[in-house]
Amino acid sequence: MFVYKSEIKLYNMKKHILLILPLFFILLNSNAQKSSVILRGGLNLANVTISENGRIDDAKTLTSFQAGFIGDISLGQFVSLQPGLLVTGKGSKTQSGETTDANYFKATSNPIYLEVPLNLVFKFGAKDGPNFFAGAGPYLAVGIAGKNKTEGKIFGTAFNSGMNIEWSNDDPTTLDYEEGVGFGIMKRFDYGLNGTAGIELKKAVLSVNYGLGLAKLQSGSDSSDDENNKHRVLSFTIGFKL
């Protein structure tokens, strides 16, 4: 009996999703009588760091998206715990020249993650709104899809190519070992810190969010050249209370 490589990858992806999904529902059901759900989507401005102090190159910012659900579990009149379940795009781009030039080059890497943020949020304003809010907390994410693309022109002759991102088959239960590593293979798990702020209306929520990745992107632990490459995502979102 033969098992195809694509079937193995599909099995591994399902396994990782099943590991992360229960976190959202456990948190949301922990105080169901005082909880609500927000359907949220918006624009991501994604980038990666290029130095030890977290500096990024603005020219490499990649436009992407996010969509999913945010729970709001009331811990008091002006304090909430907000777990989330989001499909979110990250990555960056590199470009030399313009599309109108005889020679130019552009490469983009747009990994897609299933992400569970958990923020402690403080609200300020009237009880019945509108409320201003701000909060922070950790996030955990697992890579589920994405593409690497290149395009350009050489002496006026155009070219382009694209391929799916290849993820390591890391098992989070083996903390001292990362399975499936290799050159050009992206680390499947990402984790970091969130910051969020915005305004909560009667039926809608407008927010600005920032994700500070703490995990390096390239799989393997022996390479020092890419230790500084970590996700940075600024997002602008709108949510609707269900």
Give a verbal description of the structure:
The chain is mainly beta and 242 residues long. It has one domain (5-241). Helices cover 10% and strands 56% of the residues. The chain contains 1 helix and 10 strands, in the order αββββββββββ. It has an 8-stranded antiparallel beta barrel. A hairpin with a 7-residue loop joins strand 4 and strand 5 (104-125). Residues 1-8 have low confidence and may be disordered.
Q: Topology, please?
A:
Elements: H1 5-29, E1 35-48, E2 62-76, E3 79-89, E4 92-96, E5 104-125, E6 131-154, E7 157-164, E8 189-200, E9 204-216, E10 230-241
Antiparallel strand pairs: 1-2, 1-10, 2-3, 3-5, 4-5, 5-6, 6-7, 6-8, 8-9, 9-10
The main pleated sheet reads as: 8 strands, antiparallel, barrel
Query: What structural class should be given to the helix and strand makeup?
Result: mainly beta
- Global shape: elongated
**Any idea how many domains?**
1
Contiguous runs where pLDDT drops below 50 for at least 5 residues: 1-8
Gyration radius from CA atoms, angstroms: 20 Å
Q: How far do the termini sit from each other?
A: 48 Å
Order of strands, main sheet, comes to: 1-2-3-5-6-8-9-10
Helix content: 10-25%
Please tally the helical runs, counting DSSP H or I stretches of 4 or more residues. Answer: 1
Spell out the helices and strands N to C: HEEEEEEEEEE
Number of strands: 10
Strand content range = over 45%
The overall average pLDDT, rounded, is 82
In short:
This protein is mainly beta and 242 residues long. It contains 1 helix and 10 strands. It has one domain.
